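Structure ticket #2291
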Amino acid sequence: DPDGEQIRFRLQFKVSNKPDRVELAQVYAEQLKEIGVGVDVTVLEFGTLFSDVKSSNFQLYSLDWSGITSEDIYHYVFHSTMVPPNGANRGGLVDSQIDEWTAAGNQEPDFE
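Resolution: structure written out below.
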């Protein structure tokens, strides 16, 4: 449906009950609706949400990262070798280009 008037499929978006997370999910839902993707926002208390995320029980989710001081956070979250229990690639993303980018991001810059 090029006009985005018909919902082609639906996804469940799990978020914590923090107001900013709920608002963000609602914005994403409205934007995706414009291209025919329905989004059901499910608001959960953090412990339940995080348990679902850790067990890969989600279609979409949003989490806050706090206290991140490591420069290799993208490697930990997106590299194909970081699927649990090795890391936090909970969506199981495998993409050689992203692997390349995250590996390059962990290198010391060569200013010469």
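Closing remark: The chain is about 35% helix and 15% strand.
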